[in-house]
Amino acid sequence: MSEIPAFLSKYLEEQYGCEAERIKSGYGKKRPVTLRANTLKCTAEEVERELARAGFAAERAPWYPDAFAVEGTEQALLKTELYRSGKIYLQSFSSMLPPLLLAPRAGENILDMTAAPGGKTTQMLALSGGGALITACEKDGIRFDRLKFNLARQGAGRVNAMHLDATRLSDFLRFDKILLDAPCSGSGSLAPKPITEALLRGCMRTQEALLTKALKLLSKGGTLVYSTCSVLKQENEEMLRK
Questions:
Q1: What distance in Å separates the CA atoms of residue 19 and residue 87, rounded to the nearest whole number?
Q2: Chain segment 165-204, per-residue pLDDT in tens
Q3: Distance CA 138, CA 147 (A)
């Protein structure tokens, strides 16, 4: 486990009190290997059968029948035909929640503001039965290439992928639903990149700009889901109050 920066430890204690130690201890716990059946290409039942044939013990998530916790390693799963054919997508349970909350439906015009590497984008298309009209933006060139690769492998050719900072979209556009899975400090998992106060401030500026833009692009009566992988209130509750 990476060392917890002093400033992060201070924020956790200020914001969560006695719960802070529980959060800190969680950083060191091993996360189970989890994946999602890509129902654009197959059924969850087919994935379950093929996992068993390949020697993987798997258990479905009770709250999402397309999600599985698997006994084994990610490296072993990457070698399977299930993965190579795009029938599964390795994805954390927590990252599956925002698309479920957004509840995409066929015919809806949906924006994924920061889409790479594409797990949530393809999940939204699958949840809509392949019928949603999804625009997926990604400003970073390398990450955009990864997005395009995953869209192709997952059979999500219907998605309109744009190599573009979503804040530069025209204000005349309107979307029924918007997913803003905002760039963040990664304080929820102690991301591989070092978490610094400068990084946090930069992420907050980006989050505010994206959120301001999202509210301009959202149709009247539409749905906006804002999510991060941060546990800091500066990037979550306080950002939404601005």
A1: 39
A2: 999 999 999 999 999 999 999 999 887 778 999 999 999 9
A3: 8
Query: Whole-angstrom Cα distance, residue 69 to residue 210?
Result: 33
> Quick count: other Cβ atoms within 10 Å of Cβ 123?
29
- How do residues 131-153 score in pLDDT, each as one tens digit? 999 999 999 999 999 999 999 99
| Catalytic residue flag (residue 203) | no
Annotated catalytic residue: which of 42, 184, 203, 229?
229
Q: Which residue has the tokens 């698309």?
A: 99
Residue type, 224: L
User: What does the alpha-carbon distance between residue 158 and residue 151 come to, in Å, rounded to a whole number?
Assistant: 9
Instruction: Kindly list the distances between the CA atom of residue 149 and the CA atoms of 126, 128, 157, in Å, as whole numbers in the listed order.
Output: 17, 21, 10
SS (HEC) of 160-187: EEECCCHHHCCCCCCEEEEEEECCCCCC
CA distance 114 to 72: 30
* Residue 224 DSSP SS3: strand
Report helix angle 119-127 to 141-153, nearest 10.
Answer: 40
What per-residue string of b and e applies to 31-48 under the rule 16 or more CB within 10 Å gives b? eebbbbbbbbbbebeebb
Tokens 């009190």 belong to 17
* Cα 145–chain centre separation: 17
Read off the tokens for 218: 């959202």
